[in-house]
Design a protein that fits this description.
single chain, about 120 residues, mainly alpha, about 80% helix, elongated
Amino acid sequence: MNLAGIIKRISETDYVRQAIADKADLSEFKKKPTLRILGGMAAIIVSYIICWPAIGALGALSIYYNKPLLVAVGGPLLYGLSHLVFLVGMYLAGEKYTKIFLRWATRVLMEKWLRKNSRSI
């Protein structure tokens, strides 16, 4: 199957048709963020703070105290904790905006590809 055929099949999905029909845009980003979204963004920021800077400090402490297990065990634990906090933040803040952005991107790309490949479909 060629690229034009793949684009045609993708354009026939309900998700793409709905995004094009609704003229999906990014106007939602102009609205004031809710408390949930602000909390999610705060969690994402905290996840970055507790990750590499904290692991670096743990590494410095392990060198200072000559205890390599401190960073060997604590580093992965801190990294795992940081990842969980990031996932919570993405759940709180990212879900809504990710859906909006993906619908818009789908509409823009599919309209461009359909115009470009309409001669070969």
